[in-house]
Amino acid sequence: MQITIFSVWMTFVWCSVFIVLCYILRKRSVLLNLSSMTGIIILYLFCLVRLAVPVELPWTKVVSGGSLYNFLYQIFGCEITCVAGHEIYVYHIFVVAWGVVMAVLLTRYLIQYHRVVSYFSEMEKTEDTELNNILDEICTDKEKRNIKIVQTAAVEIPCCIGIFEKRILIPDKKYSREELHYIILHEYTHLDNKDILTIQLINILCIVFWWNPFVYILKGDTYQSIEIRCDQTVTKKLKSAERGNYLAVILKEYKASVQEKEFRKPAGAMPLFEDHSDHLIERFRLVAEGKQRSSCIGKILVPVIAVALLVLSYSIILQSRYEVPEETYVMQNRNCLEVNQKNAYLYDTDEGYYLYCEHKRVPVDKKTVELLKKSGFKVKKGGK
Q1: What pLDDT score does 329 carry?
Q2: Distance separating alpha carbons of residues 205 and 222, to the nearest angstrom
Q3: Burial (0-12, 13-18, 19+ Cβ within 10 Å), 141
Q4: What region, left, alpha or beta, does residue 359 occupy, with left being phi > 0 and alpha being psi -120 to 50 degrees?
Q5: Strand partners of residue 349
Q6: Same domain for 305 and 270?
Q7: Residue of 205, 228, 14, 221 whose CA lies nearest to 106
Q8: Is residue 134 part of a domain?
Q9: What is the pLDDT of residues 291-327, one digit of tens each?
Q10: Which among 217, 263, 274, 251 is positioned nearest to 21, based on CA atoms?
Q11: 232 lies in a domain?
């Protein structure tokens, strides 16, 4: 198992294809007709798993990538300078830039999230009897419930936050009892579905792969998929008129945020809605149509396809094509042995590299080692 330029590149290619495919199929309701929203969210999480593990496995088949890969390798594999006997290549610069930007963004996000969680954790549970009674009606199992409702002017729209210390944050303004019921039910459903944990994983992976434009598509559509699943869970037992009232509450909050030009949400929080009118229109349409039931075949087929595509993505890796020169042979006792990737391998020792071929060991120089590595020769680690 190893990470190479080509394994990272193939991860980028595979994940980009997966994300775009899932996005198009979900937008066209193909996936929604086959599977539930939970299944769609799982598909996106599979994309994140593949993105987080850009490795080349022992059973991965190496295939020539043609002239494009040769061109990419010539750019990223170009030696810039040599420092203390170590060659510095172009891809080293990219890796350093990747790590520095990632460290800055991740540190900033974690500090913001810690401040937000600490700030709201210190707030006492609201003394409003009506709010607490509504929560008691929604969650009858008090042993399961570890949620506090906080009414504060620090937020403009209702939201929920916290993985361990769960909070439902309600803006400090006037609501009817019916509006509070739907708002608290919506945010409680997010907490019950562990949506806060899911979005934290997505946020962190988007920071890690900040340079990949497709992760932002994945992030936005996963957020939308989570909201749609929440809407479906809330409205599945509601009558048609009650669904309309539920949507009216969301629309009222959205209009208020637009008029006040305020859409601030705490870092890592799950708001009642995102600041995208087209997302809101889609949510309203799906709620109005009613919950679409997924078929039994779809519930099985979608995870199977996801696992199959994940395995397939590790089965093949495209690399630059390098031909071993015909004059590259191992000379031993005046016998000429033809070297190829099947009958020979490189052995890395403290004394240097050796080429093993048909039980014979021959030392090789650094230039030849690089050539043989690029040609696909395996490397084994050794001691002295």
Answers
A1: 45
A2: 13
A3: exposed
A4: left
A5: 352
A6: yes
A7: 205
A8: no
A9: 555 556 666 777 777 777 778 788 877 765 555 444 4
A10: 217
A11: yes
Q: 91 and 202: one domain?
A: yes
**Does residue 42 belong to any structural domain of this protein?**
yes
User: Would residue 128 count as lying in a domain?
Assistant: no
Among 46-60, 147-161, 304-318, 327-341, name the one with the lowest average pLDDT.
Answer: 327-341
Contact assessment for residue 30 and residue 79, using Cβ atoms and an 8 Å cutoff:
no
pTM beyond 0.85, yes or no? no
Q: Is 367 exposed, middle or buried (0-12, 13-18, 19+ CB in 10 A)?
A: exposed
Enclosing domain of residue 33: 5-121+191-318
Q: Read off the pLDDT of residues 256-274 as tens digits, 9 standing for 90 and up.
A: 887 766 666 777 888 888 7
Looking from the CA of 383 toward its CB, the CA atoms found within 13 Å total 1
76 lies in the same domain as 219: yes
| Helix count and strand count (H, E) for the chain | 13, 14
Place of tokens 């039994």: 296
355 exposure class (CB count in 10 Å sphere: 0-12, 13-18, 19+): buried
Residues of the chain above pLDDT 70, percent: 79
Element (H, E) at 152: strand 147-152
Residue whose token pair is 């937008």 = 27
Residues 238 and 353 both lie in one domain: no
